[in-house]
Amino acid sequence: MQQQAEIILADNWKVRFFSIWTGQAFSLLGSALVQFALIWWLTKTTGSATVLATASLVGFIPQIILGPFAGALVDRWNRRWTMIVADGLIALATLALVGLFWTGAVEVWHIYILLFFRSAAGGFHWPAMQASTSLMVPKEQLSRVQGINQTLQGLLNIGSAPLGALLLSVLPMHSVLAIDIFTALLAILPLLLVTIPQPQRLLVDIQSTEQPTYWQDLRAGFRYVWSWPGLVMILGMATVINLLSAPAIALLPLLVTKHFGGEAIQLAGLESAFGIGMLTGGLILSVWGGFRRRVMTSMLGLMFLGVGMIGVGMAPASLFLLAVGMMFVIGVGSPITNGPLFAVVQDVVAPEMQGRVLGLIGSMAAAMTPVGLVIAGPLSDWLGVQSWFIIGGISTFLMGVSGFFIPAIMNLEEKNRPAQEMSVTLSAASQPVHQGD
Question: Taking a C-beta distance cutoff of 8 angstroms, is the pair 394, 307 a contact?
């Protein structure tokens, strides 16, 4: 029966998976347009840096707080319906905002609520989609699929802002927001038509038919991660990457004005170089697929990130084009680092645990963004904006190099792990088994 399922997966997986993926790609485009339009409206309406910072904060809070809890629910719920409900609720929230803009009754606090709500729904949708991918895509194709995902992100980075600006120049605000409702429906439609395999849940113990409670599931997820040293280290690396990279992007405007003496066109040049690099890196990964040992690909990507950040930080004020080239290198390194890491998690983490593990990764990564900004701001004021790029770049490069010499990381994908690492203990005296066999 299992062999037959694998044959069906091998024959049909592209049609089934990419039907869903295409709908989700349209939804991501709609979300990017909404994000740009709302931030631009806040900027033009208030001109307040505090308002913009608050908008960013309310978008991070749900991801930070809900991540592990949402992941446990994703592992308990039907993942296909989780995505359908999340997309539907986001569309309804956007519809309410369309009505407010259409009637002229919109206030800044309405924007905060929508951003908070979208982030909370996304906290359920993202781990559900990522965990479903591992059940729909052959394991040997996971890196390529992640490369395609990263390519899409690169395209959105390059095209969403200009497209959003063009649409705002020819359409009223409520019409631009309405596009997101249409793209959400495009995401929901294939989910209604295509089935997604659902992993079997675990029993409380081998003598019982009792299903674990939510809190037992939540504790089991933490135990699963902390008992696996290689996974803990990868989680730590993902956290550090976000800690170092998010402030670097946030500090780009200051780097342009204070160091290079540039204007908006120079900032656009750096951001475009990053987006083009990300697109290039995603294409490389989708075609190449990376090394057979995917962790090695990620470590190489980290080294690219480090070299790029160091290059941006050390570029003299008279060599702006060098900084542009190094931003391209950072963009290339980003998907080559992140894509294989997600593919590894999708491959080696037990399917019934992936919601919790991915939720924890998302939560810790999101938490590092405000932490990194708090650290980077004073440090950059003291030592100069370039210092963050240099310090962060050296740390990232050394992290990539050291990964090659840490057995727990290099052996993360090995299938012959000790039995005690593979089990998930829900109680001190018992080990769970799959429901059914």
Answer: no
The structural domains of the chain, with segments of one domain joined by +, span 2-196+212-414
**Radius of gyration in angstroms for the set of CA atoms belonging to the chain, rounded to a whole number:** 22
What is the CA angle 394-67-123, rounded to 5? 105
Q: How far apart are CA 408 and CA 231, in angstroms?
A: 8
Cβ atoms of residues 329 and 203 within 8 Å: no
Dist. CA 174–CA 97, nearest whole Å = 8
Of all residues in the chain, what percent are helix, strand and coil, respectively (each to 5)?
A: 80, 0, 15
Q: Closest Cα to residue 415, out of 343, 348, 350?
A: 348
pLDDT digits (tens, 9 = 90+) for 334-359: 889 888 888 887 788 877 788 888 78
What sign does the dihedral 52-56-58-59 (CA atoms) show? positive
Q: For residue 286, which of 28, 18, 9 has the smallest C-alpha distance? A: 18
CA–CA distance, 353 with 437 (Å, rounded to integer): 17
The fold adopted by the segment(s) 2-196+212-414 is Growth Hormone; Chain: A; (1.20.1250)
Q: Which pair of structure tokens corresponds to residue 88? A: 């539907």
Distance from C-alpha of 94 to C-alpha of 114, rounded to nearest angstrom: 7
How does pLDDT run across 249-304, given as a tens digit for each residue?
767 777 887 888 887 678 778 878 888 898 898 888 888 888 888 889 989 999 99
**Which tokens in the block code for residue 150?**
């990263």
How wide is the angle at C-alpha 256 spanned by C-alphas 250 and 261, nearest 5°? 155
**End-to-end C-alpha distance for the chain, whole angstroms:** 11
Q: Which residues contact 391 (CB under 8 A, 6 or more apart)?
A: 379
The answer to whether the beta carbons of residues 111 and 316 sit under 8 Å apart is no
> CA-CA distance, 142 to 150, in Å (whole number)?
12
Helix axes 2-46, 79-103, angle to 10 degrees: 20
